[in-house]
Amino acid sequence: MSSFTTILALIVMGLVVLVLIRGLFNMLKGTDANRSNKLMQLRLLLQAIAIALIMLTLWLTGGGRPS
């Protein structure tokens, strides 16, 4: 289970980076402020999910403590 959550956390972190880059490019173009705002809200949601998955992985693995 911890391998699954680790892989899932890495995927979500990758999505965070992609949404961040897309939002920054959209903001630099200056075309649609509403779209930039929605992308940054999505980034925030994905970051919260990534943090939750990282915490779940640490909890499942014992946080790196010896058993």
Automatic annotation (TrEMBL):
The name this protein goes by in its record: Twin transmembrane helix small protein
Where does the sequence pass through the membrane? Answer: 6-24, 44-62
User: PROSITE patterns, from UniProt?
Assistant: HIG1 (PS51503)
Upper classification of the organism: Bacteria, Pseudomonadati, Pseudomonadota, Alphaproteobacteria, Hyphomicrobiales
Which Gene3D superfamilies does the UniProt entry name for this protein? 6.10.140.1320
UniProtKB keywords: Membrane, Transmembrane, Transmembrane helix
InterPro entries under this entry? Hypoxia_induced_domain (IPR007667)
Checking NCBIfam families in the record gives: twin_helix (NF033233)
What organism is the protein native to? Answer: Neorhizobium lilium
User: Which stretches make up the HIG1 domain?
Assistant: 1-67
